[in-house]
Write a structure and sequence with these properties.
This protein is of the alpha+beta class and 245 residues long. It has helices at 16-20, 30-33, 98-108, 142-147, 216-219, 231-242; strands at 9-13, 28-29, 39-43, 50-54, 57-61, 67-68, 75-76, 79-82, 88-96, 115-131, 150-165, 178-184, 190-208, 210-214. It has a single domain, classed as 2-Layer Sandwich (60s Ribosomal Protein L30, Chain: A).
Length: 245
């Protein structure tokens, strides 16, 4: 990571609505993304797995929880990063699930209009994850891609939760709630967090006051996308109709 990355700034590549409109082709190489942060989440070219960026290193969570270390020339169509500088940290004793972690963070960071980067180092009795699977043209609807994610359940593992608490005013731009990824301490398994039981952990939060959206190639990912439509609502309806798969 270079020292040009701003502190207290969340930077993202493209917007959520573009991804929901099946714009899965990569836009920015990982090496360029490192100029904007050392911590974050996202996906890779053609939705090939879950991005986990921690301590300036990229990891790619794939089907079944296997971890691959991508080349820095690998492209991303959508990612959210920051330079992680903890504003507050505390320990949590379990058992702690997803809802309990959210509640503990909300109690410490009460302004829901401020973006938060979240890092948790913990011991987990159970961690349920899934991963996106690489897509090919013609791309299917995003809801079908998410339903096709391959799930895995890890037991008795140590590792790191990496993610963000979004804000209501980014609907259509990014996730408005909690979005967390996970990687084991040995960097061997990981993916998108579905649920967990944490025995104990250390939570750190980094507040992001500024929000930057990067649209490579003059916004090519949005060409032909009708943003007057409720793309997020349509995605949510499709997911609700078919379940999570």
């Amino acid at each position: 990571m270079t020292d040009t990355a701003p502190t207290h700034t969340v930077t993202q590549v493209s917007i959520l609505s573009a991804l929901l409109a099946r714009r899965f082709d990569g836009l920015m190489p990982c090496r360029e993304l490192l100029k904007h942060g050392d911590f974050g989440i996202g996906t890779y070219d053609r939705m090939d797995g879950e991005m986990i960026l921690v301590d300036g290193a990229f990891y790619q969570g794939r089907a079944g929880g296997a971890i691959h270390e991508p080349d820095l020339d690998t492209l991303t169509p959508f990612a959210t990063v920051c330079r992680f500088v903890a504003d507050q940290s505390w320990d949590l004793q379990g058992p702690v699930g997803y809802a309990e972690l959210d509640a503990a963070i909300d109690a410490r960071a009460t302004n829901r209009n401020t973006y938060l980067a979240i890092r948790v180092e913990g011991t987990f009795a159970r961690m349920k994850i899934h991963a996106l699977v690489e897509q090919h043209q013609p791309y299917p609807p995003t809801a079908e891609v998410v339903k096709g994610c391959v799930r895995a359940e890890l037991t008795d593992v140590q590792g790191t939760i990496v993610g963000f608490r979004g804000v209501p005013w980014v609907r259509g731009i990014n996730d408005t709630g909690y979005h967390l990824h996970f990687i084991t301490a040995d960097r061997g398994r990981g993916g998108h967090v579905l649920e967990f039981e944490m025995e104990q952990g250390a939570v750190s939060l980094s507040s992001c006051r500024d929000h930057v959206v990067l649209m490579p190639d003059n916004g090519a990912a949005l060409a032909g996308v009708d943003l007057s439509e409720d793309i997020v609502g349509a995605f949510e309806k499709a997911m609700a109709a078919g379940g999570e798969g």
